[in-house]
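QUALITY CONTROL LOG
STEP: pairwise intake check
CHECKER ROLE: data steward
CRITERIA: each record must contain a sequence immediately followed by its structure tokens, with no blank fields

ENTRY 1 OF 2
RESULT FIELD BELOW
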Amino acid sequence: MTRCWWLVLACAATIPCQGQNLVANGGFADGSTPWFRAHKSAPGAIEIVPRDGEGFCAKLTSNGEWVDLMQPIELVPGGRYVFQYDLKRTAAGDDIRAMMIPRRAGGTDQYHSIGGSQTRLQQWQHFARVVRAPGKLESARVLLMNRLKGADAWFADLQVVPVSRTSAPGRDHSPKLDVPKVDAAPTIDGQLADGEWAQAGHITGFVRIKNGADPEAKTEAWVCHDGLRLLIAARCEEPLMAQGRFNSEGHDAGGVFADEVVEIFIDPDNDHETYYHFAISGRGADYDGSVGEGATEGAEFESGWTARAYKGPDFWSVEAAIPFGALETGAAGDIWGINICRERHVPAHAENTAWAATGTSFHTPAKFGDLVGLREAAQPKVVLEVLGVDQSTPGPASLSVRVDSRLPDATTVSIAADVASPVGEVVSRTTQTQLQPGASATVSLPFDIDERGSWQASVRCLDQSGSVLFAAPAQRFTVAPLLQARVVKPWYRGRIFSKMDLREVEIETRI
């Protein structure tokens, strides 16, 4: 049932902060309160209706006149904020959008708009941008508007959340964390040495994902980058260490999710749909996979990340370094979706906790938190293109790879290739080359073709310390059979030739 309302609500005072989301009732669960209209509109032009699948949204219908909702918010002068919301609409045009509007002292407004014409129709889409409040701030407000004739627009999950180097968990909003570049990267050994993560952004605690309640066992996390890698650490308090599950070992190990484990979900393009999934168990088993991101799906995705774990007397900890070059960051901006989560499997004390409460499952990208400040760091410094092999018959062959440098200086890099045969045998080859600033180079890696069928080549570029600068999507190539043949006539699908009284058949062959 819809809830319609027409009265203009007066609002003279600034709305106080509600948690860390400065927009009160941004999900419209409490109807229209405390939203009000800046322009008079026709009865029925604004409704609070159920959102597809979950919660509520504000539906604004326009006949060409202004239809809007507004709410004052309280900002800190000079502060940074992520302004975000979800939008569905029936027509394209800049006359449907949302704005965050700080007012400078003296009465001059700044307009920060998102969700104009760059949008899909009849589908929910997420929009977000970073806004800095002016130093001389008088007031601020958010505005939802539709003045596109004959169009419907649905607005949901309005949030304005501060960005800082320290973040508490998000119980009913999407928490934000500023991600600094560190002067010296921590040693990735799992041990969190004193002062090693002092420059990193700090997540002070996790909550239970289902209801946002405080957990029994506390977890903290740290995030930063060194220009090439996203660096993440977590410390998991465990008063019952002897009862914890620390069994799995190895890479992409099947039992990693049955152990005490930290999971990391990264949505670089912040589309709230596709993401990368990483996991480190308390014993050091690790997993990396992709859910719709990049060209490689599932556990076949290989990031070349470094992940280590350490067990103390009443805690366990993990450290990880994820190369930016292994992630698909072409559509990434300055806001990345992320969640850091923990599965605790201690008998009778099991709990799923995370930085951002996601409901019943970790795999809910619409409710991840956000990292801010990665746009420049995430741009690839080197780009690889697998050109192919020089022949497609058995015998000695060469895999050709083109390397494009975006580095400011001449640099020696390693090109490493893993070539998998049709029967699963993997041959690894590595060669070095010097890259000139802004230039390209082509390198060849020799190997032997000893099987016919489908082969796969996975290629990475590494700097002199072994860090991955770029990981190219896996490329397949086929070594054709020596002779291919098929029956052309007669062609009776499902018949058994021996029962057809055949006198002759026609066969097509290819060598």
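ENTRY 2 OF 2
RESULT FIELD BELOW
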Amino acid sequence: MAILTIYHSNAGEFLTAADAKSRTKKHRQEKEKQGYKPGEYNQAEFFGANRINKLLAREGCVGIRVYYGKRWEDDQENPTAEGVGRLKSRLILVGVRADGSDIFEDTTGLKDGGDSSALGNGMPCPQHCAP
């Protein structure tokens, strides 16, 4: 019996521009219904191709999983201490193996803690939105 692999390099679907714009518009509308004003929440984050390619180049990587996370930030997106500033939604990108497991580097014994296992701190929109 063949084993069905759901984690592969062709997972996901391309969207039409109209569908993508409709989905992002609905997200903004929902945030407004929740009482947020434009600029008070992240709509997107930009990550550079070199950083994404580094994740994809990890041994056994078939794709990227995007996690939702939060961190405390000031108005310029700089990290702050717990409870200081605003708790902002941020994206975390992690390489994924064909078995569905996240690829995290084992940094045990490394003086500098390794080269990081996940990609985060992208350039947030609305501060850095498409023109």
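INTAKE CHECK: passed for both entries
DESCRIPTIVE NOTE, ENTRY 2: The radius of gyration is 18 Å.
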